[in-house]
Amino acid sequence: xAKRVRVMRMSVEQPLWRALTGYRVLTMLYAMGLFxxxxxxxxxxxxxxxxxxxxxxxxxxxxxxxQNAAACTKxxxxxxxxxxxxxxxxxxxxxxxxxxxxxxxxxxxxxxAGSVLAFAIKGGWRWAAFASTPVAVANLIERxxxxxxxxxxxxxxxxxxxxxxxxxxxxxxxxxxLARALEIEAATRERERLARDIHDSVLQVLAMVQRxxxxxxxxxxxxxxxxxxxxxxxxxxxxxxxxxxSRISEDEAEGAVVRAVDEPEDSSGPVDLRALLxxxxxxxxxxxxxxAPVPLPPASARELAAAxxxxxDNVHRHAGEDARAWILVEDEPDxxxxxxxxxxxxxxxxxxxxxxxxxxxxxxxxxxGRLREIGGSAELISVPGQGTEVELKVPKVSRGKAGTR
Length: 405
What we know:
The protein is of the alpha+beta class. The chain has 13 helices and seven strands. The chain has helices at 14-37, 45-61, 74-94, 97-101, 111-123, 125-143, 148-200, 202-216, 219-238, 273-277, 298-318, 351-357, 362-373, and strands at 271-272, 285-288, 295-296, 325-331, 335-342, 377-382, 388-395. The strands form two sheets. It has a five-stranded mixed beta sheet. The protein has a two-stranded antiparallel ribbon with strand order 1-3. Helix 3 runs parallel beside helix 6 and helix 8 packs antiparallel against helix 9. The longest helix is centred in the middle third of the chain and has 53 residues, at 148-200. The relative contact order is 0.07. Its EC number is 2.7.13.3.
């Protein structure tokens, strides 16, 4: 069955566009409110009325333009900034001298900052600096002098817009870094999944061919040698290049047991774990399970059964053909515990770390990796001369990514 992967794109700047949309509407209403409250200071109010009608229509008509970066084109930004600049320059024609000398607001008032912020969100701090410059010149022309409050307002708009533009650039860079990290994580997980599948099938078959070829001799020995080289090359590939290709491990070629587990066709609901573990029972493998079904999510049940199979493969390969194994299934209220125990010679201390460093990732990927994917855990206890015990714990409600795919 093909898997459907849902990809969600994040946009750290989208909230800024929504905030800018609200800012433009509110500041347009604020500018018109100032005009009404200071009507007496206007010598030619008709000029202001005409401008505010244009500003009102322009602001509402261009709301779709400030919804996202794609809609906010360079042509729109230039036209929007022109509306603000015209309003600033028209202010001396509409108000009296006292209004200007006392530092009264321009016709667009703080609506002008919205035009500059659009530049900042669209193109970063350089665009913001570019848009702030004509606004500063227009304010100085409107005032007619280098008054302290005018210079203060100009610098404030300049610094604020550049700072916001810089923040937007940093946010975009962080978003790209996060997207790349998520891609690497997804690729790593897929690589681990493929490595587990390869370890459970192809690598074990190649190891068996190498062993049997060495026993038969002749042309079969040459075929076994080539199979061994391919095993090492493939193992190096899935383990990230931990081994040189020319190195062939003898103890990995001692043989393997490849076992197929029949899975229920209907995987839409919970799966009885006992049905997946039943094929593992044999004359040398004793299976002890509850009398009632052990339901698990399909993905969790399959991964747990595969981990049990990997543990049994390790028993047959490293404990010998005569080794016996026991599988104990415990159905707890919140989790399922499966214990695989054998009567082999055990694992020498430090052997697992050495094997993982050499690229033999059976325990790391086929057992621990599978359990980690479904939110479970695997604990291995081995005492030399007293066998090995692997305890696998899986929550009944999958917390791993494999259970949600």
